[in-house]
Amino acid sequence: MLESDGPTLEQLNEALDSESSEAIIDLLAELHPAEVAHLLESLPPARRELVWKHLDPDDFSEILAEADDAVRMDRLRTMAAPEVAQLAASVDPDDAVDILQDLPPDLVVEVLESMDAQDRERLSQVLVYPEDTAGGLMNIDAIAVRADVTLEVVARYLRLRGEIPERTNRLMVVDRQNVYVGMLRLADLLTLEPEVMVSDCMDRETGAIAADTPAGQVAQIFEQLNLLSAAVVDDAGRLLGRITIDDVVDVIREQGEESLMHMAGLDHHEDMFAPVLAVARNRSLWLGVNLATALLASWVIGLFEATIQEVVALAVLMPVVASMGGIAGSQALTVVIRGMALGQVGRHNAWALIRHELAVGALNSLLWAVVVGLVALYWFGNARLGLIVGIALIANLVVAAIAGALVPLTLRRLRIDAALAGGVVLTTVTDVVGFVTFLGLGALFLT
Fold first, then answer.
1. pTM confidence score
2. pLDDT at residue 237 above 90?
């Protein structure tokens, strides 16, 4: 029975605290390699090493294939090339590629030279493709059959093979030149009459995925067509392998983690327990960028220092204007980044999306300008102050909506990760516009 990670992690820590090797081994033996990998990611380095010492070496390859890049690389550094070669040869090619692509190129060559010719050839077919493409995700264990044979011939062929690869729900149908022409469902193989020709019952509508297709687009194809597996082909349409749903789930998870971490200016491959100095160095860049933008906003406030000293209420209400603009902009930014990630935003609909977000921002700005204006009037008993804060709020929310839509589109054209830099740019825009508008109006009409 599958259980949540929390109790298992707690149990493992208790076993490590008790220094009971038997308890540690018994607990780890009950877990799936993916669960062990998750636990390793949750432990500090010293405890990770203790867990590795209690694991069966035969399980190392599957655990490393499931672990994140930081944990995997940390372990691979302790291993010699022949050991890595043995690990890579014992798992599926797509998992082996995940292991090897974390290594320096010279070490990859050394590992490949340590393998036998069959394993080396098997991995080389996948290593030529970047890991974030369909070719890098695929497994070359696809079973191919011809369209001009009967289901009985196919069934006899499978019996002669003795086994079929895991997660095989369809067989790939190819012609004499190994060009992909369709798929044969195993369900049809089992339920239709043996005399039926493959060509008469195969699925011709589900196309293959080009090997250079980005991983994110592969995930979209699987989601839109409700696929469990798909063929991967080269530029000439020849069958190279297949992608299965478990690979796509990994892509979706990694993309979610990447978006979340990038919004905080972090590396999504960063180990939770990486060395302190390395983590501090990685995070310092965006802290510096944020400091620069914060100083810019502070400089803008400083321009109106005399006005603020004369009308203290401006200092009280100033954060409201900036905060509301920041939230409105973040909402628009999130919608656009999500649409870009799903391939739903491009030149054909960008202006329509900007107009839509502008309309939403304008409507919300009118509503909340009235609310904040009435609050300011009630709080300070100054109708002119309430009108000023309302106008400033309208201006900032409208600009925030436009910026929230424009910033990620502009960053994409500049080949900059919108999830990584969009929040910093947007915050600067909404802060500066909010402060200039509110304090400028205050300087004009309240002093």
1. 0.63
2. yes
